[in-house]
Amino acid sequence: MLGLTKQDSKLMLIVIGLVVFAPFILNPFPEGSAMAQFNAGYPDLMQRFVIFGIFAIGFNLLFGLTGYLSFGHAAFLGVGSYAAIWSLKLITLNVLPGIVFAIIVAGAFSFVVGYVSLRRSGIYFSILTLAFAQMSYALAYSVLTPITGGETGLQIKNTDNPLIGGPTDGSIGRANLFGAEMGNSFELNIGSWLFTFNLGYYIAAAFMLVAFYLSIRIFRSPFGIMLRAVKSNQQRMNYTGLTPKRYTLSAFVISGMFAGLAGGLMVAMDTQVGPERMFWTASGEVVIMTILGGAGTLLGPVLGAGFIKYMENIVSKINKDILHEWFAFMPDGLEDAMVAFVYPFIGKGWHLTLGIMFMLVVIFLPGGLVEGGQRIAAKFRRTKNAETPDGASKPAE
Amino acid sequence: MALLSVKGVNKRFGGLQALGDVNLDVAENTCHAIIGPNGAGKSTLLNVLVGKLIPDSGSVVFDGQSVLGRKPHEINQMGISRVFQTPEIFADLSVMENMLIPCFAKRDGAFRMHAIESVRHESDMIEKAEAMLDEVKMLDKREMTASSMSRGDKRRLEMAMCLVQEPRLLLLDEPTAGMARADTENTIELLKTIRKERGVTMAIIEHDMNVVFSLAERITVLAQGTPLVEDTPDNIKGHPKVREAYLGEAQV
Amino acid sequence: MDQIIVQILNGLDKGSAYALIALGLTLIFGTLGVVNFAHGALFMLGSFCAVILSRLLSSSHEVADPDRLDFLGNPAMNKVFYVQDIFGEAAGAAIMDWAVPLAILFSIPVMIGVGFIMERGLIKHFYKRPHADQILVTFGLAIVLQEIIKYFFGANPIQTPAPEAFKGSLDFGVFLGYEANAIMYPYWRLVYFFFSAVIIAAVFAFLQFTTFGMVVRAGMADRETVGLLGIDIDKRFTFMFGLAAAVAGVAGVMYAPIVAPNYHMGMDFLVLSFVVVVVGGMGSLPGAVAAGFLLGILESFASMPVVVDILPGINQIIIYLVAIVILLTRPRGLMGRKGVMED
Asked: What is the mean pLDDT of residues B152-166?
């Protein structure tokens, strides 16, 4: 399919299926039930899943393949966001040009940052990218206020007057795609289940599928081999007549453009942006997503992004009362002990769980959750039919 | 005309004269060995040839074009490949991928954004890589990760990676250093076959006289950064100056 | 002129903190070859040592006061501090007042312990792994440590005052012939500066004049050879990790009155400290110290109204700007050694 191997096509189809049917898959619990709080199938969160998925896919093209650890990728996302919002404010409320601008501007910015930062490698590269990102954040926060709106950031206002097709009645314009507003949703009631199909989500999801497809193609291309060669041995590359720096810079710019796309989509969904989007913790987040999911694997970054956003938005809302409900079947003393034991790790403490998981992955599972899943699957397969030799355990993905 | 011609090359490191007025011609289709005691400047000379070091003065001309001031990857694209003392390969990649990289480099030059094409569809390149692997008898290892192979196999792979580029000149930096006897013999055999069947021009730096005399057609003896003599192996064997350089060192 | 002196003084205390953290980072990097992203968390733990001790010292119990009755007619309860029970009223009050300096004594064993556990339990296994892995695992550890602190102490900063004796400011200008109140400098910042100078001097003296220090310095230069001499360099390196942790810890303790401890202060300092280390040159102790003070002072100069008027926003980015320029022009930083981290 589309020039992919059978195995890759299967992966692509699975991802397409998951993304298209996400409103069902993420809403397995009926409305009003005790478990309904674990439903993640609402538009805002689903949009975040796919947008951060794009961000992580792009980051993985740089880090997963070349091994260059950028600690400043949020800057490209932020720059993309600013570009997109200006397009919405000045040119048209149609999101498509905004997204294109976001990609172009982020690509240009990442070219500049990458060109300078790639003159060093190792930790120096990480620090340089961090320095650029922090500078962008500080400038967006202060001096560049006329462009960035400073601390309050930028939103679409009723005073905005885009060149093409702004609202004429003085209302606040809404982002749309050829007239269809991002916020449009179709709701489906089946029994006590409620499923929401949101246009914005499906637009972002379509971009994510394209990003995912591109990432498969890049992984399987000669260019992808070159990027892995950069990670493996730059000296040999040089003496084989190749320029590792240009390959790395290309990867850097491509991943910057993915980040810009994610930033543009964010603006398309909620039409606002603030400088905190570029703070270094945001860069740290995409590092964690990618590695937790599995750096250098295809599916890992998407899984990592989904996992973290699920924890951030769902697991973080679990409070002590809910825990008491869960453990209510236990005798009182044990119940309290269980709650006291579990509570630090979920609810507001979800960062702790994340930190611990992240450390465990770095220590034991260089391939992240994807590798963990593969190992479990392999073990399962082995115990299931112990007599057949395990020949089909191909690593990666 | 010589394929590689080094004229009057000087290189100082601080107070140390690493290379003093080196002249050297490597003729097309020969195996030229450069020998000499430790610190004679062999490695410095090699690094000048591949663009890692820039000499203070002199000229290095390869096939009518100066290599001075060019970067290593440009010099490789001119047709000079280098085998390192410890094999430099892409350890995390499979043997096949290791082979494909030089194939692409040869076809596409120093950089090309072939990001959407699939490697699977590069059948020409794959055939070329397979033929080369077959030649060094490693075809059965094509899916292995390079780092998991023995040292001897890594050396073979590195040579195959250099040869698949069909270099005009193959530079070998002590290809048998630190090898067991059997591996050394195998490597000599491999090099002999390559030399005979492909007719590739070789310049080899080597300590092991056994290797040198089984391979070389010309030998240059380097001592203290300066060439002492250049002659055929038979003449070098009995040459008084060479004995002096080596034995003199041995006596110290 | 007085403005310039004010800025230098202002830069000193921040510079001192940068220098102390950077010193610890460099000790760890130079000896163990590990890039420790959890070092800021150690600084933060130090700050919380001060918080913990001052809470411990001000723990109290209630005693019924027979002379006073509350509005229900019951005897009113008086708060009595345990330290005052033990040491008497005046001495007890003084001990509570001096909680922050006393926390130094408390923090040193704690931080050395934390350092030992970290090195033996985690870092040890990462000596041979790529720097990227080291950065990532210590980054994860930093998150874990700060979340633990957040769980116990909450997300809000906790005011931890300096002893009464050091409250208020020194009229520094008077010494230089300026009129009164021209240059005011809080006493505690002065204390912090002298304190960090003493710590830095002590670390250097320790490395310079003790056999232990000599071996460690040799190990920093060439680890393998020292190992070949039959010296158990690993044990000494473990100790160095403890020492670096203690330096970060006491730096944090003494900083508590300047910036109220909060769980993410470590990360805030870490980012800048890494920039400091890189500017100073990875692996160079004098470089780390010099760059720490240099950048602290530069930052405070850049915040001068005159400067900000000309170059708006420069105060926000000066450190990063300097870092970028230095990294591009002097790849090894101000005083870096050749071959460090140039893979």
From this structure: 91
